[in-house]
Design goal:
single chain; 245 residues; alpha/beta; D-Maltodextrin-Binding Protein, domain 2; 2 domains; 12 strands; globular
């Protein structure tokens, strides 16, 4: 796993390269062109972090900030709230955006995925002490209970794949605490997400072990918008995203 120093270095490098890309992208938008849009997110380290002053950062936010700067998006229109509520709003209300979110078949029907923010791979993890847990394929994982975040893409995938023993939490921190406490057998996490949470609780990485790589799903993170939004607005956002790539 990467060190805290490497994590900060990666964030700085990403920010540097995308600042160069932004200066080479000449897109003219009025200051109030996207004032009716709302962008929802949640505190989900390391991809989204919220400090005591309400400032938003994190790995997924680095590219996002350059995108929002390019469209002159008003900072006050970024709202932090629980994922389940944000997800419900973006599925049902026009002019609502959300990040970070993963592409899933059922989501593509209702959302336009505008811009890729970060590439991620997920894994099933077990506590290292649980040597009785052996997973050689995804079907074998179904006999174990899984800690998941309510309405998260990983829960959606597991439900569609026939998993029935899902222990839900409202956010990723509570989900991780339940996993550590043995409330479930396994959890679906990314390496970076796991690393940051272990750091947060001052725990050693040897406490957990990869049980199975979940290569069946694309875990890359995007910003998406409700498809009921005016098509001109969606096209303008996607046009900006293309020029930033």
């Amino acid at each position: 796993m990467c060190s805290c120093h490497e994590f900060k270095k990666n964030v700085r490098l990403i920010a540097f390269f995308y600042s160069i890309a932004l200066t080479q992208t000449h897109i003219a938008y009025a200051e109030d062109e996207f004032k009716d849009l709302i962008l929802y997110t949640e505190n989900d380290p390391p991809y989204v972090t919220v400090d005591d002053n309400g400032e938003i950062g994190g790995l997924a936010t680095v590219r996002l900030n350059h995108f929002l700067q390019a469209i002159k998006f008003p900072k006050e229109n970024i709202k932090i709230q629980p994922w389940a509520r944000s997800y419900k709003d973006v599925l049902t209300k026009k002019n609502v955006m959300i990040y970070p979110i993963v592409k899933m078949p059922e989501r593509i029907e209702k959302l336009e995925f505008v811009y890729k923010l970060y590439e991620v791979t997920a894994f099933f993890y077990r506590l290292s002490s649980r040597k009785d847990i052996v997973i050689r394929n995804i079907n074998e994982a179904k006999k174990y209970s899984v800690c998941v975040v309510r309405a998260d893409y990983r829960e959606d995938f597991l439900k569609r794949s026939g998993f029935t023993q899902l222990d839900e939490s409202n956010d990723s921190i509570m989900n991780f605490k339940k996993f550590l406490a043995g409330r479930c057998d396994i959890a679906v996490l990314t390496k970076m997400g796991l690393h940051v949470k272990l750091q947060k609780f001052k725990l050693d990485s040897s406490l957990v072990t990869i049980a199975y790589p979940l290569s069946e799903i694309d875990s890359s993170l995007y910003i998406a918008i409700n498809k009921g939004t005016d098509q001109k607005t969606i096209d303008a956002l996607k046009n900006t995203a293309k020029k930033l790539k």
